[in-house]
Amino acid sequence: MSDGDEDLNRGLEGIKVAETRLSDIDGEAGVLTIGGFPVDELARSATYEESVFLLFEDRLPTADELDDFRADLAGRRAIGEEVQAVLQRAAEEGKPAMDALRMGAAAANLDAGAEDPEADARRVIAVFPTIVATYWRYREGAEPVEPREDLRHAANYLYMLQGEEPDEAAVRGLETYLNTVIDHGLNASTFTARTVVSTESDVVSAATAAVGTLKGPLHGGAPGPVLDMLRSIHESGDPEGYVREKLEAGERLMGFGHRVYRVRDPRAAVLETAAAEFYDEAGDSDFFETIEDFEDVAVEALAEHKPGRDLETNVEFYTAALLDGVGVPKELFTTCFAVSRVGGWTAHALEQLDDNRLIRPLSAYVGDHDRSWTPVDER
Ligand code: COA
User: Which of 258, 295, 348, 351 is catalytic?
Assistant: First the structure.
């Protein structure tokens, strides 16, 4: 038995396994840098295409380069009838959006191989919104909307989801979100993507595996439940009662706590500001007040519940508020996260391939040794 193995590090906390120039997290100070920019500056200023270009090339594009890059991504958005058919089936059978995305990402990229990783990366980024929107249209009993090459990434995504051209405020709101969560150090899904290509597998496989990793509630699956929680608290008007009940039952409060941050997640502030504008405009500022009050109540209760652990607001909390504000249905919150993070996954995959070393950690064996075999008829 290797119980108490001093080399064992469950969850790889504090272990560095890759060099990256893509993003940097200071978890104690609550500072996030993406491609060299503070997250709030990038989130406010960039189009999603510029953020992806920045991650791929480590610099901002010139105006001509941006036009070319935008056109190139736009030209890779379409999916064939066979892919539409599998998404239709997933929607009609009520399968979750993340499962449809995982299947759609694989089905839409059957032709991709390991020969041109950057072309695969562009295709995966371009096609994720089409897959999600097609699935959603079928789920709503509507026909899918063909992508439009003249719209930028975020605008086209909303257009395909909603069937009409979105207003600029919604596009900017969504784009702020997409820029904010595009990359975040070596989180579980990004680590998955790097691990997949470290075997010299391909970028499509990396992105598909990363979708499966993102799906879990400890990673990207929290914002849907956050919205349900906030709506129910808004109705009951009793945030203290809700928090007490959950914590006494030993449950976790969704939207709080983080493996790396010990202070408020800096992405929460960016998304909070963006969300506030929407609720103001929509005349729903009561609900937004509930959200902000609940944050205070929850953080205080968590400090009493786990003294010294610093459980603060994470990105998912205001993601729920902002995505709801721009009109993304809650069933698609985690797929929206994937629509953004695929930029980070693929940039990490390309970075890993540039200077690859097979990722292959060890495990601590805690089973028996020297068992002797008993034939089946004697057991
Ligand atoms: N609500 C209540 N308690 C929480 C909590 C939360 N949101 N997050 C952590 N804790 C508690 C844990 O139960 C644990 O208590 P224990 O020592 O008695 O078991 C303690 O704080 C330490 O948590 P730990 O499991 O070590 O944290 P982690 O680094 O593994 O987990 C998260 C980080 C994000 C998975 C965790 O905080 C969580 O589950 N949050 C809720 C889900 C969520 O918002 N996910 C989105 C992440 S961006």
Answer: 258
